[in-house]
Amino acid sequence: MNGAGLPLRSMLFIPGDSEKKIAKAPECGADAVIFDLEDAVAPANKPAARALVAETLRATPRGQRPMQYWVRVNPLDSGLTRDDLDAVMACAPDGIVQPKIDGPDCVRQLSAMLDEAEQTHGLESGSTAIVPVATETATAPFHLGEFADADLSRLVGLTWGAEDLATALGATGNRLPNGEWHETFRLARSLTLLAAHASGVQAIETLHADFRDSEGLLAHSRQARAEGFTGRLAIHPAQVGPINEAFTPSVEEVDHARKVMAAFATNPGAGTVGMDGKMLDIPHKKQAERLIALAEAYGV
Fold first, then answer.
1. Which of this chain's residues are annotated to bind Mg(2+) (predicted)?
2. Residue numbering of the annotated binding site
């Protein structure tokens, strides 16, 4: 969620060692930026990246930032997670993206590390959120259903990753010639969506690798929203606009939702109503209520 309690529609990755790209972050229009200390940074550059990200976080305190500032740390088994947190937690990132987890226990371990860091640096307990990339190992998809009962108070979303999963499987590709995901990756994506909703957190779609394909990005993002995803990762500033558009209710959707609400209002107490030759029931009403509330919050 963003500072206003709204779903994060767009989360833009920015290499943690790129001073030029980090300087442009405030104007990117994303709901959140993720300063990356993991895959986007070569091992030799990680110390410099930590220092640069910490400096960026310190320059704009939490609550004064133009969007949320998150950090992707290195995975637990790298031996670098503690170094990452030691560098950035004093500067109060809004959240941590956790890569290459095997399941909820990995998130629980990170949460304990954040408990300690928040206490050390005088931060509000539990104020640093976590979004794990929940499908990057061969083990991870088998544990997605466990998130629903894991009681992870810092967890605000689940996302998935196709590239690292392909590496973990020794796959030579993750898409069919028509651009659709191979079966294994479709399964991982669907399980992530279900696990997020079962846990009551955001379902965040993975990135669209071709940053020049704005039409494809918009179409695929609209499809993801129709399926129940609430936001998407981005790897280039040009992707932020289409993603925000796709995950914001349109005027036409709002008009339809208001029409649904009006139909129920004229039939108080009714469980079903007719509208435009179709029968609508209570789930349609609830969907309309949620859409209108979200649209009003985004100023549609």
1. 136, 164
2. 72, 136, 164
Q: At 275, which amino acid appears? A: M
pLDDT band at 5 (very low <50, low <70, confident <90, very high): low
- Binding-site positions for substrate read 72, 136
Angstrom distance (rounded) from CA 161 to CA 147: 17
Domain assignments of the chain as residue spans, ordered by start: 10-248, 252-298
Lookup: tokens for 152: 């992870």
Strand ordering across the sheet containing 32-36: 129-132, 95-98, 68-72, 32-36, 10-15, 231-234, 202-205, 157-159
Rounded Cα–Cα distance for residues 189 and 227 (Å): 11
Task: Give the per-residue pLDDT at 3.
Answer: 42
Q: Per the annotation, where are the binding residues for Mg(2+)?
A: 136, 164
CB of 40 closer than 8 Å to CB of 15: yes
Cα–Cα distance for residue pair 102/136, rounded to 1 Å: 8
Among the four given CATH numbers 1.20.1070.10, 3.40.50.720, 2.60.120.380, 3.20.20.60, the one describing domain 10-248: 3.20.20.60
Side-chain-facing half-sphere of 193: CA atoms under 13 Å:
17
Taking only the tens place, the pLDDT of each residue in 214-254 is: 999 999 999 999 999 999 999 999 999 999 999 999 999 99
Q: Is the Cα torsion angle 108, 112, 117, 123 positive or negative in sign?
A: positive
